[in-house]
Design a protein that fits this description.
Layout: H1 4-22, H2 45-55, H3 68-71, H4 119-122, H5 124-128, H6 143-148, H7 151-160, H8 170-182, H9 190-195, H10 205-214, H11 221-224, E1 236-237, H12 253-256, E2 265-266, H13 288-296, H14 319-330, H15 335-339
Antiparallel strand pairs: 1-2
Helix pairs in contact: 2-7, 2-8, 10-14
The structure holds heme C (2 copies).
Length: about 350
């Protein structure tokens, strides 16, 4: 007996293990498209796991005080509950932190940077950005050596990047974080059960009436919060929220320098909107009721805002319609994603 059979069996086990590190099964519900993934960073289960550890690791900041998860908390649909974010050194961000649910489908990232399109690239901003400081890391810091000397990371980086001689690089850190972020799929809201799983009882009659309002004139919510994520990218809009000339939040004008872009921001996803208050890029609206007041009034009074989108023209909403619309917005909230152990702190 040569033992070839058992050797073959052993080989099969090894290649299976390798394959599971190399593949990622999306398990998407019916109607959900497969997210676009950059060619140079294919999804693997091992990278996702490494990314999750990094996302929750406060060693990712200059003083050990913050991680991505400090400002993107799972229980708040990956926001932080503050009007504007506060970085590791106490510096205030001019804008509020944004939800990361279904971020894999976003074609443009952050409130007002039309050039920021890949999660791999975006992660560098909180890590190394100086205006404002978020995590406050600096290239050449002790950060990579810290990871290299950690037994857990030795294992995780080896699994995630098995072919690379020097795996502890910033590029690999951002690749792994991006892979983890792409897995945060929200698809189990009452609305999803109603709309995709065809469970007619998943939402109330009020929410169904609210859905019709959302998708009709003159409210026109769907014109800017469209698609299955109820979001507006890659377009940006001026919703008459703000005096568009008030720095630092001048919208995409900051990058395009085109005066008609003043005060234009991304229309974020409305999924899990009940967990992400306060609202808008500057957290200036406290409740969903106040958001509706803002739209009904056709933007904030007193700004004489010539740059406001023509869709923000104001409308009248009866008390009953208002309740229905709020019920619809509530039906977009997915409790499961707030507690799913796959997205939780692994440490
Ligand atoms: C100090 C709080 C803070 C920390 C720490 C932080 N973020 Fe954010 N995040 C924000 C804010 C604020 C925004 C909006 C930024 C803007 O508009 O300029 C944002 C936006 C984002 C977006 C864009 C979301 C969208 O809908 O377009 C992604 C993705 C993101 N952060 C991922 C991360 C990752 C990954 C980390 C860790 C490497 C991280 N963040 C760390 C506050 C933070
Ligand atoms: C002209 C496009 C447009 C229309 C129409 C529109 N929105 Fe928005 N919405 C936006 C933009 C852009 C933002 C972000 C604005 C900002 O922060 O300055 C936003 C923000 C929001 C937010 C806050 C999101 C967050 O995470 O902070 C809610 C809630 C919202 N809209 C609901 C609605 C509802 C309900 C309607 C219909 C009554 C509606 N929107 C109509 C573009 C639009």
């Amino acid at each position: 007996m040569c033992g070839c059979k058992s050797r073959l069996a052993l080989l099969a086990v090894f290649s299976l293990a390798a394959a599971s590190a190399q593949t990622y099964v999306w398990n998407l519900p019916k109607g959900f498209p497969k997210p676009r993934v950059p060619l140079d960073n294919p999804m693997t289960a091992a990278k996702v796991e490494l990314g999750r550890h990094l996302f929750y690791d406060t060693r990712m900041s200059v003083n050990g005080k913050q991680a991505c998860a400090t400002c993107h908390k799972q229980e708040l649909a990956f926001t932080d509950g503050r009007p504007v974010a506060v970085g590791a050194t106490g510096e205030k961000h001019p804008r509020g932190s944004m939800s990361l649910v279904n971020i894999a489908y976003s074609s443009v990232l952050t409130w007002s940077n039309p050039g920021l399109k890949e999660l791999e690239q975006q992660a560098l901003v909180p890590m190394f950005g100086e205006h404002p400081v978020e995590l406050g890391l600096r290239q050449g810091d002790a950060f990579l050596p810290t990871l290299r000397s950690d037994a857990k990371y030795k294992e995780l980086f080896a699994d995630a990047f098995p072919e690379e001689a020097d795996r502890f690089t910033i590029a690999n850190v951002t690749k792994a974080i991006a892979c983890f972020e792409r897995t945060i799929i929200s698809a189990r809201s009452p609305y999803d059960r109603y709309h995709y799983a065809e469970d007619d009882n998943a939402v109330s009659e009020a929410a169904k009436r609210g859905e019709i309002l959302f998708f009709s004139q003159p409210l026109s919510c769907f014109r800017c919060h469209g698609g299955f994520n109820f979001s507006g990218d890659p377009e940006f809009h001026n919703t008459g929220l703000y005096n568009p000339y008030s720095a630092p939040n001048v919208g995409i004008f900051e990058f395009t320098k085109d005066p008609k872009d003043l005060g234009k921001f991304k229309a974020p996803t409305l999924r899990n909107i009940t967990s992400t208050a306060p609202y808008m890029h500057d957290g200036s609206i406290a409740t969903l009721e106040d958001v509706l007041d803002h739209y009904a009034a056709g933007g904030r009074a007193g700004h004489n805002n010539q740059l406001k989108d023509p869709l923000i023209a104001g409308f009248h909403l009866s008390a009953a319609d208002r309740k229905d619309l709020i019920e619809f917005l509530k039906s977009l909230s997915d409790e499961a994603v707030l507690h799913d152990s796959r997205f939780a702190n692994p440490w």
